[in-house]
Amino acid sequence: MYALEAELSELRATVDSFTKEREEFLLHLNAPKSGMDEKQLQEEVYDLRQEVERLRASEADLIERLKEGSSKKAKGKRDSAVALATVKEMEMKEHETQLQSEVQRLRGCERDLQLTKHEAAVAELMLVAFYQVAKPQHMEGTHAVGGNATRSASLVLDRLGDWNCFVEPDPAFFAKIVETLNAISHIHNGCTVLSFYWLATMWDITQTVCRKLSDLPHIQKLTATERTYVTRPEGAGGVLRPGEDDPHARFVLSLRAALFSHYGACVQAAVASLASVGAAQAMFEPDQAPQQPAAIVKKGQKPTRGKAESAANVHRPVMPDVITALLAIRRSAAEAKLHESLQLQLFAQLMQWLNAHSVNTLVSRPELCTCTTGIQLKMSLSALEDFLCKPEAAAIFGARRYLEHTKQASNLLVMDKAVLLDPSNLESVFGELNIAQICCIVRSFKTDSMMPQVKNLPAVLTELAKYEAKAKTQALQLDPLTHVVPKV
Asked: With 80 as the cut, is the pLDDT of residue 425 above it?
């Protein structure tokens, strides 16, 4: 800027100098000229006029240059101002972006700190909910429970309400709650009182959360069966539809998944308890292990442990052992105050396991397809029904219907096979068994002392041959671990 001002002053001085020169030339022109003729005077006037024109052109050029310089100076100032404003704007935007990033980082830190705080609180809360309502004797292996699952669940839900979780949902916090529930479930996943107690607590928590969030479309679409029993969360009402993927709905789905997982662990432990006493084999065994006669020892001979005596000392699976195991499971569930609907579902699952193993054993071992086996199965079924029909076991009475396959198979073994000549009996008398299972049992049937002969067997086999094509498309065995959900 100072350079332009100096140049302007210089140009102005030059113009003044030219103006002064012009005035001097004009004075010189008007002054009388001595010793010069007219021609010389005219030539000099012409030269002077040319000089004046040159001076005027120089002055105009200087003025134009001066204007151009001033214009460039003004334009430079405007460009500088615009450039400066642009730079400042970019710097402000960058600064604003940095501030926003910092705010987000600080908020993330705040959430992490809050989550860490809640994580400890949730862990403590769940453990208190699990152990506070149980007497110290419970930890020592006895079965004395001081409280109940409803009280434990209320403790958890009241604290969640205090934390305002149902109004301002935090997905990460909900995930931590479910994670803690699963952690405790993994610790207590047997068929003990503690395991059933925690199952009841998780059930109460899930049911209460569903009631609190009953206005959600996801909750409203739960069927009566899903509200009454433990079902797979991928079932009819367990999948989030478009528009339902909100934190509360996801929390309910996670709770139902955790509940299903813990229930499955309890079922597996109960099945393992039955398997440990040989429940599947005991369905085909007498009520008591037969006593083998003592080996005869001749005089002067040392007694030896023969095969007969060794076999007598081996304990064979018998139904009383199975009933004892079932009774222990029912007592644990009752002492833990497991809900009646869950007790029914649990024992329906166990009866289905026994039922499937019995049918599968029959169709895979032809030597067992005899009338004697049918009678033994009926005796075993009678023992199971006596257990299920006791007054103190009223909650699990409905589980007896899950023994129907075995009941019909035992009937098929002891009944006159001529009943199969009437096609309507296949549905009315043996409706639970499919054609493939009926054909397999009848073809494998063998006479024994209880049924020395079978009338009309060739005619029966000829009648069943009509269903051969259909039988080939049906499953011969049952799945013992299929998830059972009683009908509402």
From this structure: yes
